């Protein structure tokens, strides 16, 4: 896929996010990792509810592929962007945005194929002082963006920050078991001040 087509994908993704979230002027934060094209994290401030939304832009530029494949398909393959939904809090800074961008860069850097129920370790707090050092991916409120064939639709996966204890639970019991525990405990995973669920 040439640069013109990949740029068209990114333009379509941005327009789709704006239409779905309802904010025409998200705040962009751009970061470039060595050897990669730039990624953006778009900040959509609360409008119709109490939640901010942080969406990546650039992960879906190319399809994700299994690193074991000898030749990557430049057109076919899953595409995804990430979105984190949270109440506004004081820890929203550049390191927080950089960590979100790092997760979006993982398909290009580590050959990760982003999908629901995938657990990703960050290796540090998601933001300064946060108890969350990993994220769990799941389906989000954003509808898939259909691209011209033969390209696959872009999926928008929600990032849910989790603690190291919760991450261990996912490894042991699976993602759905953790979601059930949250539901039983009445935990809102969009609350940055939430405590870890008792497991």
What would you say this structure looks like, in words?
With 199 residues, this protein is α+β, with helices and mostly antiparallel strands. The protein has one domain. Helix content is 29%, strand content 24%. It contains four helices and seven strands. A seven-stranded mixed β-sheet has the order 1-2-3-4-7-6-5, with helices on both faces. Strand 1 (27-31) and strand 2 (39-44) form a beta hairpin. The longest helix is centred in the first third of the chain and has 19 residues, at 3-21. The radius of gyration is 17 Å and the shape is globular.
What is this entry, summarized?
29% of the residues lie in helices and 24% in strands. The chain is an alpha+beta fold and 199 residues long.
Query: What radius of gyration results from the CA coordinates?
Result: 17 Å
Stretches where pLDDT falls below 50 for ≥5 residues?
none
Strand portion: 15-25%
Global shape: globular
Strand order of the largest sheet: 1-2-3-4-7-6-5
Report the order of strands and helices.
HEEEEHEEEHH
According to DSSP, the number of beta strands is 7
In oligomeric terms, what are we looking at?
Answer: single chain
Helix-residue proportion? 25-40%
Number of domains: 1
- By DSSP (H or I, 4+ residues per run), the number of helices equals 4
Straight-line distance between termini? 46 Å
Mean pLDDT over all positions? 92
Which class do the helix and strand fractions yield?
Answer: alpha+beta
The biggest beta sheet, please? 7 strands, mixed
Task: Write out key terms for the chains shown.
single chain, 199 residues, alpha+beta, 7-stranded mixed β-sheet, 7 strands, globular
């Amino acid at each position: 896929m040439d640069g013109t087509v990949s740029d068209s994908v990114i333009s379509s993704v941005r327009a789709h996010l704006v239409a779905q979230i309802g904010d025409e002027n998200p705040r962009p934060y751009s970061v470039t990792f060595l050897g990669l094209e730039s990624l953006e994290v778009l900040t959509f401030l609360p409008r119709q509810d109490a939640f901010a939304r942080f969406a990546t832009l650039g992960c879906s530029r190319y399809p994700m592929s299994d690193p074991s494949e000898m030749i990557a398909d430049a057109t076919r393959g899953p595409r995804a962007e990430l979105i984190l939904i949270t109440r506004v809090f004081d820890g929203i800074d550049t390191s927080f945005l950089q960590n979100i961008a790092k997760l979006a860069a993982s398909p290009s850097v580590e050959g990760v194929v982003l999908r629901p129920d995938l657990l990703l370790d960050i290796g540090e707090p998601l933001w300064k002082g946060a108890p969350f050092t990993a994220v769990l991916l799941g389906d989000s409120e954003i509808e898939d963006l259909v691209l011209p064939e033969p390209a696959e639709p872009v999926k928008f996966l929600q990032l849910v920050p989790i603690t190291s204890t919760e991450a261990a639970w996912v490894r042991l019991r699976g993602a759905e078991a953790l979601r059930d525990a949250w539901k039983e405990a009445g935990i809102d995973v969009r609350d940055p001040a939430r405590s870890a669920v008792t497991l």
